[in-house]
Amino acid sequence: MTQTTALHGEKVSLLRVLGPGHVWALGVGIVLVGEYMGWNFAVGKGGAIAALIACWVAGLLYTCVAMIDSEVTSTVAAAGGQYAQAKHIVGPLAAFNVGLFLVFAYTMLEAANAITLGYLVQTVGTMAGFEGVHDKPFIVLTIMFLAWLNYRGVYATLTFNLVITAIAFVAIVILFAAVKPWGNEVLKLDGLLNGLPYGWLGVIASIHFGLWYYLGIEGTCQAAEEVRSPPRSLPLGTMTGMITLLIAATMTWYVCSGLMPWEYLGQAITPLFDAARLTGSTLLMVLLFVGTMFSTLASANGCINDASRAWFSMGRDHYLPVWFGAVHPQNRTPYRSIVFLVPVALVFAYFAPLDQVITFSILSGLLGYTYMSFNVIMFRSKWPLGVIKRGYEHPFHPLPAIVLLLLCALTYFAVFLGYGTQLVAMMVFYIVASLWFAFHRYKYVRRGDQFTMAWPRPQGY
Amino acid sequence: MNSFQFLEYVAWAISILLGLWMVIDLIRTNRAYSEELLLSSREGEIDDSLVIDPTHQGGHR
Predict the structure, then answer these.
(1) Of residues A16, A79, A141, nearest to B15 (C-beta)
(2) What is the pTM of this model?
(3) Considering its fold, how many domains does chain A have in total?
(4) Domain membership flag for residue A419
């Protein structure tokens, strides 16, 4: 290999090759694992009916997120998603925090997925009669393989996600059809539903895990700099993704609640796979096991994609060392950011307990959603409709922002009920990081270079 | 050694190979291209006329 230098005017950037299908695969791919496992802990908190209420309340929260995100992202078409939005609309400190929320939410979720995949392979080994089986080799393999795929190129990465996510979604639809939801032959909802065993406090507590039905759909906007037509692809991919998840979440609840008593469902590790086992069909068991594996892989894959884009964007703006802002000239990927985040994910996947990793991810995501409600109000106030071109305009403004803020407040309370210490610890972490940025790192930021959108001066400035 | 333990060793071996592959490629890429080119990406840039695509337009390696 020979040494080369850039010719005058020559640049390298991320590759614009993605379509709405890839955006859908990125968003739904990250989230669908929440239908296969995790959502059902909401049942343990307040019963099956509480889990259904949580499903719809969280669905409302995320519909607001998807609408708000679609409008802002169709305008701020840049890698980094909400980080780039915050930089343009709110300010540097908010942008730094939002960037960190994104990186930690996705890296922790990636680690949680790898732990889960390792556990599944270990379970298969144990069920097959092998002794002394370990999950660690498969946890590490999951992270290394998906990081390598992301390193090689975004098109192959998200096409892979499209295929495995579609298979995982179709598996849920087939299971739903197989249990004949139009009758009581297989599903026993009449006998299994028992109202609200812990009352309305149980409903509030269940909202914490209700987020699992949709957590990560906002990740679609990280692809903003790699889609062929951001104003069209991002809203289309995000909104169809949200519709897909609402359908999948409701089907999942209906099937599982009709097959398992809430005492079991509330602590099951793989509820959809367990539901398939209860049908007695080997074909459905294999299908749902494949669906579980694929949804876990797709989620970890999308998380690597999103975390690396957020880290890359922060490096490119000097919010972090600029070294991370490099693009691979052949693969056209943020290769240094991808490689740097591998050991971070490995450390958490190898040493941290699963529930702590998941809670850190949820709380980081929740902080990001809270910011979104302020962000969109400031966006509409500084640049009202008609001032700049938008690919999508969300309806009923500011109602979605207000609803989002209220639901976030409710969810903080729900999380506090179960994980108060982690909530406080995480707040302290972000405050310390903010102090580091404000008093040390910000002097390296080239303030004028941060604003890249050709927008008019904001109203009131 | 049973067949599952063999699978575990295979998983470790593939992981190490993929990790080494990425690190070696990262070092080779850093050496093969100037830092100016590697850091030339700009946010929100949609003018593809200036952007090189080594696969289709020929890279300078």
Answers:
(1) A141
(2) 0.90
(3) 1
(4) yes
Q: How far apart are CA A86 and CA A80, in angstroms?
A: 10
Q: Are the beta carbons of A32 and A299 closer than 8 angstroms? A: yes
CA distance A15 to chain B (A): 9
- Rounded distance between C-alpha atoms, residue B18 and residue A147, angstroms: 9
Q: Which tens digits make up the pLDDT trace of A229-257?
A: 888 888 899 989 999 999 999 999 999 99
Range of the domain at A173: 20-445
CATH code of A32's domain:
1.20.1740.10
Show the tokens assigned to A228.
């062929």
Residue A24 forms part of a structural domain: yes
Cβ-defined contact of B29 to A16 (cutoff 8 Å): no
Q: Which tokens hold the place of A398?
A: 């500011």
pLDDT tens digits, residue range A120-148?
Answer: 999 889 988 998 899 999 999 999 999 99
Tell me the ipTM for this assembly.
0.86
A13/B40 CB distance under 8 A? yes
Nearest to A245 by CA among A282, A269, A278, A218: A218
Q: Are A287 and A413 in contact (CB under 8 A)?
A: no
Rounded CA separation A433/A90 (Å): 18
- Let me know if residue A308 belongs to a domain: yes
Q: Which phi-psi region, left, alpha or beta, contains residue A445 (left: φ > 0; alpha: ψ -120 to 50)?
A: beta
